[in-house]
Amino acid sequence: MKLENERYIVTFVEKGGEIQSFTDKETGIQYMWQGDETYWSGKNPSLFPMVGNTYTNDYTIEGKSYAMKNHGLIRYAALTCRQDDGKQIVMELNSNEDTKKQYPFDFHYEIAYELKDNMLTVTYHIKNTGDKEMPFSFGLHPGFNCPLCEEERFEDYTMRFSNPEKMQQLVFDVEKKEPYKLENVELQEIPCDYETFDRYKTLIYKGTKSAYLTLEGKKGHGVKISIAGYPYVALWTAKKDAPFVCLEPWYGHADFSEVKEDFYHREGTMILSPQKTFTTAYTIEVF
After folding, report:
1. What is the 3-state secondary structure (H, E, C) of the chain?
2. Each residue of 173-184: pLDDT tens digit?
3. What average pLDDT score do residues 133-145 get?
Protein backbone atom coordinates (compact mmCIF):
# COMPACT_ATOMS: atom_id res chain seq x y z
CA MET A 1 0.00 0.00 0.00
CA LYS A 2 1.28 3.44 -0.84
CA LEU A 3 0.44 7.10 -1.29
CA GLU A 4 2.58 9.06 -3.71
CA ASN A 5 2.94 12.46 -5.32
CA GLU A 6 5.63 14.11 -7.43
CA ARG A 7 8.02 14.50 -4.49
CA TYR A 8 7.15 11.97 -1.77
CA ILE A 9 6.13 8.35 -1.40
CA VAL A 10 4.70 6.86 1.79
CA THR A 11 4.17 3.12 2.21
CA PHE A 12 2.13 1.20 4.77
CA VAL A 13 1.72 -2.28 6.22
CA GLU A 14 -1.31 -4.00 7.71
CA LYS A 15 0.57 -5.08 10.83
CA GLY A 16 -0.51 -2.45 13.33
CA GLY A 17 -1.73 -0.33 10.42
CA GLU A 18 1.69 1.31 10.48
CA ILE A 19 3.69 3.57 8.22
CA GLN A 20 6.45 1.53 6.59
CA SER A 21 8.37 4.44 5.02
CA PHE A 22 8.17 8.14 4.19
CA THR A 23 10.69 8.94 1.47
CA ASP A 24 11.72 12.10 -0.34
CA LYS A 25 12.22 10.91 -3.92
CA GLU A 26 14.38 13.94 -4.77
CA THR A 27 16.89 13.75 -1.92
CA GLY A 28 16.52 10.08 -1.04
CA ILE A 29 15.96 10.93 2.64
CA GLN A 30 14.08 8.26 4.59
CA TYR A 31 12.28 9.99 7.46
CA MET A 32 10.77 7.02 9.28
CA TRP A 33 12.74 4.76 11.60
CA GLN A 34 12.89 1.34 9.94
CA GLY A 35 13.21 -0.78 13.07
CA ASP A 36 16.33 -2.55 14.29
CA GLU A 37 16.41 -5.10 17.10
CA THR A 38 19.79 -3.73 18.15
CA TYR A 39 17.97 -0.64 19.38
CA TRP A 40 14.19 -0.94 18.97
CA SER A 41 12.33 -3.26 16.63
CA GLY A 42 9.23 -1.05 16.71
CA LYS A 43 8.61 1.67 14.14
CA ASN A 44 5.53 3.83 14.72
CA PRO A 45 2.87 1.92 16.66
CA SER A 46 -0.50 3.29 17.67
CA LEU A 47 -1.17 2.83 21.37
CA PHE A 48 -4.65 1.48 22.12
CA PRO A 49 -6.40 0.78 24.45
CA MET A 50 -3.60 1.82 26.79
CA VAL A 51 -0.38 3.79 26.78
CA GLY A 52 2.35 1.79 28.48
CA ASN A 53 0.91 -0.70 30.94
CA THR A 54 -0.52 -1.03 34.40
CA TYR A 55 1.74 -1.33 37.44
CA THR A 56 1.12 -5.09 37.67
CA ASN A 57 0.86 -5.63 33.89
CA ASP A 58 -2.70 -6.86 34.35
CA TYR A 59 -6.06 -5.42 35.39
CA THR A 60 -9.51 -6.51 36.53
CA ILE A 61 -12.87 -5.98 34.86
CA GLU A 62 -16.02 -7.30 36.53
CA GLY A 63 -13.98 -9.63 38.72
CA LYS A 64 -11.96 -11.18 35.89
CA SER A 65 -8.27 -10.57 35.26
CA TYR A 66 -6.93 -9.49 31.86
CA ALA A 67 -3.52 -8.54 30.50
CA MET A 68 -2.09 -6.81 27.46
CA LYS A 69 1.43 -6.34 26.19
CA ASN A 70 3.06 -2.93 26.49
CA HIS A 71 1.08 -0.16 24.76
CA GLY A 72 -2.01 -2.28 24.16
CA LEU A 73 -3.06 -4.58 21.36
CA ILE A 74 -3.25 -2.65 18.07
CA ARG A 75 0.51 -2.65 17.47
CA TYR A 76 0.49 -6.46 17.46
CA ALA A 77 -2.66 -6.94 15.36
CA ALA A 78 -3.08 -7.33 11.62
CA LEU A 79 -5.50 -4.70 10.37
CA THR A 80 -7.60 -5.05 7.22
CA CYS A 81 -7.25 -2.54 4.40
CA ARG A 82 -10.69 -1.18 3.53
CA GLN A 83 -9.70 1.56 1.11
CA ASP A 84 -6.65 2.03 -1.10
CA ASP A 85 -7.53 4.28 -4.03
CA GLY A 86 -4.39 6.37 -4.36
CA LYS A 87 -5.96 9.27 -2.44
CA GLN A 88 -6.58 7.68 0.94
CA ILE A 89 -5.65 4.48 2.73
CA VAL A 90 -7.98 3.23 5.45
CA MET A 91 -7.29 0.22 7.64
CA GLU A 92 -9.51 -1.21 10.36
CA LEU A 93 -9.83 -3.78 13.11
CA ASN A 94 -12.98 -5.04 14.80
CA SER A 95 -12.86 -6.62 18.22
CA ASN A 96 -12.71 -10.39 18.02
CA GLU A 97 -12.09 -13.48 20.12
CA ASP A 98 -8.38 -12.71 20.42
CA THR A 99 -8.79 -9.04 21.41
CA LYS A 100 -11.46 -9.92 23.98
CA LYS A 101 -9.06 -12.25 25.77
CA GLN A 102 -6.94 -9.15 26.43
CA TYR A 103 -9.57 -6.40 26.50
CA PRO A 104 -13.19 -7.43 27.08
CA PHE A 105 -14.92 -4.73 25.05
CA ASP A 106 -16.49 -4.47 21.62
CA PHE A 107 -14.91 -1.83 19.38
CA HIS A 108 -14.25 -0.75 15.82
CA TYR A 109 -10.79 0.75 15.27
CA GLU A 110 -9.97 2.67 12.13
CA ILE A 111 -6.90 4.54 10.88
CA ALA A 112 -6.89 6.70 7.75
CA TYR A 113 -3.93 8.22 5.88
CA GLU A 114 -3.90 11.09 3.38
CA LEU A 115 -0.84 12.64 1.70
CA LYS A 116 -0.85 16.23 0.44
CA ASP A 117 2.42 17.78 -0.68
CA ASN A 118 4.88 17.10 2.18
CA MET A 119 2.24 16.43 4.85
CA LEU A 120 0.73 13.13 5.93
CA THR A 121 -2.53 13.41 7.87
CA VAL A 122 -3.35 10.48 10.14
CA THR A 123 -6.90 10.20 11.48
CA TYR A 124 -8.22 7.70 14.02
CA HIS A 125 -11.82 6.66 14.69
CA ILE A 126 -12.54 4.37 17.65
CA LYS A 127 -16.16 3.31 18.12
CA ASN A 128 -17.63 1.53 21.12
CA THR A 129 -19.75 -1.08 19.35
CA GLY A 130 -20.83 -2.74 22.60
CA ASP A 131 -23.53 -2.04 25.14
CA LYS A 132 -21.37 -1.00 28.12
CA GLU A 133 -19.03 1.89 28.83
CA MET A 134 -15.52 1.33 27.45
CA PRO A 135 -12.45 2.60 29.34
CA PHE A 136 -9.43 3.28 27.16
CA SER A 137 -6.47 5.51 26.53
CA PHE A 138 -4.68 6.35 23.31
CA GLY A 139 -1.32 7.55 22.10
CA LEU A 140 1.06 7.76 19.16
CA HIS A 141 4.64 6.52 18.98
CA PRO A 142 6.21 7.53 15.63
CA GLY A 143 9.94 6.97 15.32
CA PHE A 144 12.05 9.17 13.04
CA ASN A 145 15.56 8.63 11.78
CA CYS A 146 17.99 10.91 13.58
CA PRO A 147 20.26 11.83 11.93
CA LEU A 148 18.58 12.06 8.53
CA CYS A 149 21.62 13.06 6.49
CA GLU A 150 25.17 11.85 6.05
CA GLU A 151 27.84 13.69 8.02
CA GLU A 152 25.32 14.54 10.73
CA ARG A 153 25.15 13.26 14.29
CA PHE A 154 22.26 12.71 16.68
CA GLU A 155 23.55 15.66 18.68
CA ASP A 156 23.20 17.94 15.65
CA TYR A 157 19.42 17.83 16.07
CA THR A 158 17.08 19.90 18.18
CA MET A 159 13.47 19.30 19.20
CA ARG A 160 11.52 22.55 19.25
CA PHE A 161 8.01 23.45 20.36
CA SER A 162 6.27 26.01 18.16
CA ASN A 163 5.88 28.34 21.16
CA PRO A 164 7.85 28.92 24.38
CA GLU A 165 6.36 26.55 26.95
CA LYS A 166 5.53 26.79 30.64
CA MET A 167 4.62 23.19 31.39
CA GLN A 168 5.28 20.31 33.74
CA GLN A 169 7.70 17.45 33.28
CA LEU A 170 6.59 14.09 34.59
CA VAL A 171 9.66 12.63 36.30
CA PHE A 172 9.32 9.00 37.31
CA ASP A 173 11.23 6.40 39.28
CA VAL A 174 12.48 3.71 36.89
CA GLU A 175 12.18 1.10 39.66
CA LYS A 176 8.55 2.15 40.26
CA LYS A 177 9.06 2.46 44.00
CA GLU A 178 8.05 6.11 44.27
CA PRO A 179 5.16 8.06 42.69
CA TYR A 180 6.13 10.28 39.82
CA LYS A 181 6.81 13.98 40.39
CA LEU A 182 5.70 16.96 38.35
CA GLU A 183 8.44 19.55 37.87
CA ASN A 184 7.73 22.97 36.41
CA VAL A 185 9.82 23.72 33.33
CA GLU A 186 10.08 26.64 30.94
CA LEU A 187 11.64 25.96 27.56
CA GLN A 188 11.12 25.92 23.81
CA GLU A 189 14.06 23.86 22.56
CA ILE A 190 15.42 20.51 23.71
CA PRO A 191 18.79 19.40 22.30
CA CYS A 192 19.06 15.79 21.20
CA ASP A 193 21.39 14.55 23.90
CA TYR A 194 21.85 10.91 24.88
CA GLU A 195 22.79 11.84 28.44
CA THR A 196 19.45 13.60 28.96
CA PHE A 197 17.55 10.61 27.63
CA ASP A 198 19.59 8.28 29.81
CA ARG A 199 18.86 10.40 32.87
CA TYR A 200 15.08 10.54 32.42
CA LYS A 201 14.58 7.44 30.20
CA THR A 202 11.56 9.17 28.66
CA LEU A 203 10.95 12.91 28.59
CA ILE A 204 7.25 13.39 29.33
CA TYR A 205 5.62 16.82 29.34
CA LYS A 206 2.15 17.75 30.54
CA GLY A 207 0.21 20.85 29.60
CA THR A 208 1.94 21.91 26.38
CA LYS A 209 0.27 24.77 24.51
CA SER A 210 2.16 24.51 21.22
CA ALA A 211 0.45 23.35 18.06
CA TYR A 212 3.58 21.67 16.70
CA LEU A 213 6.79 19.93 17.70
CA THR A 214 9.71 19.98 15.25
CA LEU A 215 12.83 17.85 14.96
CA GLU A 216 15.50 19.57 12.84
CA GLY A 217 19.15 18.97 12.03
CA LYS A 218 21.99 21.29 11.09
CA LYS A 219 21.43 20.74 7.37
CA GLY A 220 17.88 22.02 7.65
CA HIS A 221 16.00 18.75 7.21
CA GLY A 222 13.55 17.36 9.73
CA VAL A 223 9.97 16.58 10.63
CA LYS A 224 7.15 18.52 12.24
CA ILE A 225 4.24 16.83 13.98
CA SER A 226 1.05 18.37 15.29
CA ILE A 227 0.46 17.95 19.02
CA ALA A 228 -2.50 20.26 19.71
CA GLY A 229 -5.14 18.70 21.94
CA TYR A 230 -2.93 15.98 23.39
CA PRO A 231 -2.51 16.27 27.17
CA TYR A 232 0.98 14.73 27.15
CA VAL A 233 3.96 14.78 24.81
CA ALA A 234 6.73 12.21 25.22
CA LEU A 235 10.23 12.15 23.69
CA TRP A 236 12.19 8.91 23.65
CA THR A 237 15.10 7.04 22.18
CA ALA A 238 16.19 3.52 23.07
CA LYS A 239 19.76 3.97 24.30
CA LYS A 240 23.05 5.68 23.55
CA ASP A 241 23.91 5.65 19.84
CA ALA A 242 20.37 4.72 18.79
CA PRO A 243 19.92 6.59 15.46
CA PHE A 244 16.32 7.62 15.96
CA VAL A 245 14.01 9.58 18.22
CA CYS A 246 10.28 9.19 18.89
CA LEU A 247 7.96 12.20 19.14
CA GLU A 248 4.85 10.95 20.91
CA PRO A 249 1.53 12.73 21.56
CA TRP A 250 -0.39 10.89 24.30
CA TYR A 251 -3.77 11.05 26.00
CA GLY A 252 -2.57 9.02 28.99
CA HIS A 253 0.50 7.29 30.37
CA ALA A 254 1.71 4.12 32.04
CA ASP A 255 1.52 3.45 35.77
CA PHE A 256 4.89 4.60 37.11
CA SER A 257 4.23 3.27 40.61
CA GLU A 258 1.51 1.35 42.39
CA VAL A 259 -1.93 2.72 41.51
CA LYS A 260 -4.95 2.31 43.78
CA GLU A 261 -7.57 3.32 41.20
CA ASP A 262 -9.28 0.66 39.12
CA PHE A 263 -8.88 0.38 35.35
CA TYR A 264 -11.74 2.82 34.75
CA HIS A 265 -10.17 5.56 36.84
CA ARG A 266 -6.46 5.44 36.00
CA GLU A 267 -5.00 8.83 35.10
CA GLY A 268 -5.52 9.51 31.41
CA THR A 269 -8.30 6.96 30.98
CA MET A 270 -11.25 8.08 28.86
CA ILE A 271 -14.72 6.51 28.95
CA LEU A 272 -16.53 5.93 25.66
CA SER A 273 -20.28 5.36 25.89
CA PRO A 274 -21.99 2.61 23.86
CA GLN A 275 -22.23 3.35 20.12
CA LYS A 276 -20.19 6.56 20.49
CA THR A 277 -17.04 7.32 18.48
CA PHE A 278 -13.77 8.89 19.62
CA THR A 279 -11.90 10.73 16.85
CA THR A 280 -8.42 12.18 16.92
CA ALA A 281 -5.74 13.02 14.37
CA TYR A 282 -2.25 14.37 13.87
CA THR A 283 0.00 15.34 10.99
CA ILE A 284 3.56 14.51 9.99
CA GLU A 285 5.21 17.17 7.85
CA VAL A 286 8.68 16.54 6.40
CA PHE A 287 11.22 19.00 5.05
Report:
1. CEEECCCEEEEECCECCCEEEEEECCCCCECECCCECCCECCCCCEEECCCCCCCCCCEEECCEEECCCCCECHHHCECEEEEECCCEEEEEEECCHHHHHHCCCCEEEEEEEEEECCEEEEEEEEEECCCCCEEECCEECCEEECCCCCCCCHHHCEEEEEEEEEEEEEECCCCCCCCCEEEEEEEEEEECCHHHHHHHCCEEEECCCCCEEEEECCCCCEEEEECCCCCEEEEECCCCCCCEEEEEEECCCCCCCCCCCCCCCCCCCEEECCCCEEEEEEEEEEC
2. 998 999 999 999
3. 98
